[in-house]
Amino acid sequence: MDLFRRRTRRPTLELDDIQATLLRARPEPYFGTHAIIEIADQAAGRQLLRRLAPLVSSAARWDEPQSSWMALAVSYPGLVALGVPQASLDSFPANFRAGMAARAERLRDTGPNAPRHWEAPWGSGRVHLAVSVYADNADDWRSTVAGYERELRDLAGVRLLSHQDFGATGFNVFGYRDGFSQPVVEGSGAESLPGDGRPIKAGEFVLGHPSETGLPLPTPAPDVLGRNGTYVVFRKYHSHVAAFNRYLRDNAATEADRELLAAKLVGRWRSGAPLALAPEKDDAALGSNPRRINDFDYADDPRGLRTPLGSHIRRMNPRSTKLEVLSDVNIRRIIRRSTSFGDPVASAVLADDGADRGLDFIALGARAIDNVEFLQSEWVNSGNFVGLGKEKDPMISLQDKGAYFTVPGTPPRRVHGIQSFNTLRGGEYLFMPSLSAIHWLAG
Amino acid sequence: MSEQDLQSRFQTLPATVREKVDTVLSDAKIALKLKIAEILSDSAEQADHAVTTAGRIGAKSGEVSELTVIMPLKPNGAARLRKFFSLVSGNLAGAGQVGTLHNMRFVFLDNDTKLLFATAYDGEWDPYIDDFATKIPEFMDYLFSNVEGWPGITSPAVKDFITQFQIPAEAWFVSHPNVTVAEVNRLKRQDATVQTFLGALN
What domains does chain B contain, in order, with CATH numbers? Predict the structure, then answer.
């Protein structure tokens, strides 16, 4: 599916100062690597930024084909390690300064998702710099990775802590098309597609510009550091696809019934076709058509008879759903740049092979940290906002013992035995600086 | 029950509980000690009503949190607010739309120089303040602009501004800690359906 959006309006944002990843969708198929770097020495850290700065792509000409690009983000300990002045450090929001592990309670990252179970280097305080490379072909991916590895190699004071490759076709390891619904950023010039909703004020995604309140959201100081930057929430999930398949097998007798139950959990069929437009069975043509795949709302389905109120996509983007709690859905949008790792698992496979696979959930936005904390407590690990009590998101929540999912209908069907289908393995809050801020940080 | 009986019932409770009660309530009558020790020994009841934190500040029991602020009013702030409250006869019916408010009250203190605002609400401190800033900013600002120094609901400083006047409760009790406003709405709908069904059945 072609995810690139044409530019139909003149952009008003300073695209040549904004990192490409914020406005540029990843290609399909895609290849890439996330590298996590520790800055042990301030001078070496600044030197590394000076070397990487020319490799980081801007959003200028983001609508033109480009075979690969690089993105860079810094954690709070990373800013400290780079020697950012205290007044500037203090201008960052408290949850970013605390870091993801310290916010575990707020994020509902407890039990198996708690930081004490995370993989290294997550939660260690040593995650300073994240460098991601995205490419539409394997050759350009390898040469871009080789490019930054060269810059890293002879710098003694910086250490590569982890290196995770990703690559996929636009489908996640559960076998579902994923990652294609994005908010339209006002002033980006991007074409909006049917069902995208109205453009959202740029300040919701790019710091230093008016947000939905009419004012810019709190922006780190000085202006050269904060303006045109954004926040990044990185969460690495391990996916239990065999457990998902077993849940379907245990609760539906035929292949068609299993696929329908799965669609009720997700809100879409495997092709991406939404239940809202394809209530009976999958429609591959619809799923591969970017002009149709999001062209719906829930105005004619208040009870969730087609798309359950508790389904994953309706929770994460309620669109026109009337919520039980006064909420502004336009300030809860995030730009999603999640990537898959590991092999997908066929729906017939019921035994876990123990292999590593899952999703690096990556959310960008001026409110990304607040929003992921909001989503985790209000829309993922609770059902209160749509009158579903303690029922949770069927795909990404931490399920309690005895949890169930309700498929609305006459009568409704309560499907017991639902488990957590994704387990958190780590993550961090990051700040994605503008290109001019990278130079400022490099000193 | 005689003092003797109360004493012997007290002795049947776990020693750790008795010790704590004896130490803290050394000046209390045995009837009170027994009552408190019995409540402390009922672990299921204790767990149901466990007091946790509402996040930034305040106490939470189950799903329901408390918020009490005492804020300084501008000159004539109380008079201006009173005009509004008398227009609606003290009836804040529209607040039901927020969907998380169990109750709230506005009280003038110290010769109309201070405003006490207290509420019991679902969830935690942070999540929905941002929604107030884009969904009902006029209302929030009309009410609270009478407060000295109010930065405006859309100001980045507003959360810290409110927090500095908040006095967290030392003790907090909610009858049904897990029943949110949304749950009450659902249970009322369900009950109406059941009553209709029962009516039709006969």
Answer: 3-41 (no CATH), 51-165 (3.30.70.100)
